């Protein structure tokens, strides 16, 4: 193959071993893979995927390929690629991959454009950079596109904004909205992998530290819970009164970021918004404060403002940049402000990505069957797909549950019975 761009093809064997290891924890996706191989529901479908290039994503790619899809994969973040996995997909499965960990923004978008040169019938996105670039630069491809899927909160927000502006030209299924995605992937996956990334980057002890979580969505809930489990004194900042109330009732201290900035030792943003930690927050932080982000884009921390306040920047550990401020303090930024769970760690555990990527695979199948009925807007994953994935996951975990009797079904559908 010549149509790929990865760091080093000699890494392929190690990537294959790690793909196999991840597959052990992905029984739902394996069951879909086996069915797809028999039924070939995606035969003839060209798919351009812009996702984090990890072992779990690799198992999704091979599942889509088993279903008959012709796939190209590019990275959805410059720091999220596992180079051995990228090489393995090219070497073993002949899937074109355009992704190199640490690539600059010019290369990142060159790779996205290469994925669009595949002339896809379907997009599979994580953050909506692929879809956004397609709509801005390659509108000639739009007539042939059936639809797409979107993996993460940030991407869904962008796509719903496009739909509201009548700028979205094909239907999208918001995989992120599936209960089997955001309940588990966002909460348990982000919670665990974000702490993993922070610890790998810094090797700091979390016990006894004031750990500030910016945002109390599903990712924030998971992160706050796990930081507390590691012994941290957790503070939550929020703008939504309902989420702030929930965090308070969950036992966390809740306060504005400006107050939290004065007492925090470690900060992590998980909001999907811009400048959540800004210049006026940096001005009151302790010297030595550690600041990370686990949202999709590197805009949640205003790093340009921090640079303006600094005399120099030193790389003191891999993925740890120490900013020396003009007043003598230091502030450490992890992973260039990019999502730390993938910048310095391996992303979510395979067992939660099993459900997320099962949603991707089944949503792709659904889109092939139903695209002509769908409008140019963002749809949630159909409930029957969501429940089937939950059923398969329970079955794989050897967990049995009750089923309703005919009498119970009848009772729940009636209104006559009362006190």
Automatic annotation (TrEMBL):
Residue ranges crossing the lipid bilayer per the database entry: none
An example Gene Ontology molecular-function term: adenosylhomocysteinase activity
Localization, UniProt: Cytoplasm
Cofactor note text: Binds 1 NAD(+) per subunit.
Keywords: Cytoplasm, Hydrolase, NAD, One-carbon metabolism
Entry's Gene Ontology BP terms: L-homocysteine biosynthetic process; one-carbon metabolic process; S-adenosylmethionine cycle
Binding site for NAD(+): 152-154, 186, 215-222, 238, 294-296, 341, 348
Cofactors that this protein relies on: NAD(+)
EC number, as in UniProt: 3.13.2.1
Chain sites annotated for binding substrate: 54, 126, 151, 181, 185
Domain S-adenosyl-L-homocysteine hydrolase NAD binding: 186-347
InterPro entries found in the cross-reference section: Adenosylhomocyst_ase-like_sf, Adenosylhomocysteinase-like, Ado_hCys_hydrolase_NAD-bd, NAD(P)-bd_dom_sf, S-Ado-L-homoCys_hydrolase_CS
Annotated signal peptide: none
A cellular component term, taken from the record's GO annotations: cytosol
Pathway of action: Amino-acid biosynthesis; L-homocysteine biosynthesis; L-homocysteine from S-adenosyl-L-homocysteine: step 1/1
Family annotation (SUPFAM superfamilies): Formate/glycerate dehydrogenase catalytic domain-like, NAD(P)-binding Rossmann-fold domains
UniProt main location, coarse: cytoplasm
UniProt catalytic activity: S-adenosyl-L-homocysteine + H2O = L-homocysteine + adenosine
NCBIfam families named among the record's database cross-references: ahcY (TIGR00936), PRK05476.2-3 (NF004005)
Family: Belongs to the adenosylhomocysteinase family.
Function statement: May play a key role in the regulation of the intracellular concentration of adenosylhomocysteine.
Protein name from the UniProt record: Adenosylhomocysteinase
Organism: Longilinea arvoryzae
